[in-house]
User: What shape does this take?
Amino acid sequence: MKNAQTAIPHPPKAASLFLAWALPDSIVEPVLGDLSEEYIQRISNNKLIAAKTWYWRQAVKSGIQFMFKTQRGFVMFIFSIILFVAMTMLLVALSGVTSTFIDVQSIIGIFPPAIAFTYAATSKKSVHKAFSILINNTVSQSEESYLLSRRVFIVLGNSGVILGLFITLIGLTAMGANMTDLSSFGTAFSFSILGLMYGIALKMVCYVAEKKIQTLSETEC
Amino acid sequence: MTNKEKYLGEFEQFLLLSTLKLGDNAYGSTIRQLLADTIQRDVTIGALYTTLDRLEKKGLLESKMGEATPERGGRAKKYFKVTAKGEYALKRSKQALTSMWENVTINLGACEQ
Assistant: This one.
């Protein structure tokens, strides 16, 4: 019996997870069951690739159809982030000096420490919970969970800005020490400004995420 | 149902008729396959359940959860059954179509070409 069960092929897991996330709770079980049943029928006709393609097509089409109803909040959040990134990239491209806006030192100076501070100030569980609420906002949470999740994004965003200011001060100090060397002065200036810019960008995204969770919390509690 | 109520849409009629044809074995997968075999219409499972849900909310269908099987990954089936109200809505739509077709002559040969 055990061997017979393990021999049953499983549909593509990522497609099933996407569908389970996008579908309303009331039909997740019958829909995934129906697709699984038909997937096995198609595989038994020795058409593995065709069956997988069919499953993915069903999952993507049906998932997209439902996600705008069930996960509208998350879809709008992602859309706003994409819009923000696209607008930033457009402005950078219009300035004509794209490479000037990319500074690995500043990125390393902002993002890893901000994430580490967030883990330290809250907890690993709270961080995971905060992102889980943001992604899957159909599951009801306690008021305390919402509060802790909001705190995660507040800490992450504020850490970004404070680190940005800190990097700006380092840059200003370096600029002061290199007043006569224009090349070093320019590098220090760029480091100083870009650090602050990345910090503010992180704060902006976290602000939207925090407000999103606040809205969810006020709707439910 | 009052006379002012709208008639069933084409896809709604197909789903109710499929459910009637399948009897006790009417669930998502079998309905989908029947539509594909009979009218060569390959609908996505999402579109199917959206309409089934709408028909259930209108009171034209009722559903119950069935058994879970290993080939379904241990997930239960959702069986559908046409209610008396659903049968009446189907008959009404059919009568309306039949009335509209009365005294209408079209050259079917031209359509086939």
Remarks:
- The helical segments of chain B are 10-22, 28-39, 45-57, 84-101, 108-112.
- The mean pLDDT of chain B is 89.
- Chain B has five helices and two strands.
